[in-house]
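Structure first, sequence second, as always.
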């Protein structure tokens, strides 16, 4: 289910093993552009996986500043909802 906590990331899968190898969060400042390139439609709930073809991968890579390796990896834009407690909760700023 979609939530306001939802973030998106580019996820890589090894072409040989199909195992997830890495992920890169998509900053909110470029999210709409990345979603447009990935083919998100207005009626989409944003919860699906969006595979990127070679051209889409190159365009997203330029925006996020990574070097794509399409011969080694598949690239997807995927939603991610951080866990409620990941052990890294922010604290309130308390003067020392």
């Amino acid at each position: 289910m979609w939530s306001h906590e939802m973030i998106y990331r580019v996820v890589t899968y090894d072409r040989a093993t199909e195992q997830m190898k890495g992920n890169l969060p998509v900053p909110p400042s470029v999210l709409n552009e990345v979603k447009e390139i990935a083919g998100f439609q207005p009626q989409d709930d944003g919860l699906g996986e969006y595979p990127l073809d070679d051209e889409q991968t190159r365009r997203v890579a330029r925006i996020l500043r990574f070097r794509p390796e399409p011969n080694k990896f598949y690239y997807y834009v995927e939603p991610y909802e951080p866990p409620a407690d990941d052990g890294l909760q922010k604290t309130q700023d308390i003067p020392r």
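Margin note: The two ends are 40 Å apart (CA to CA).
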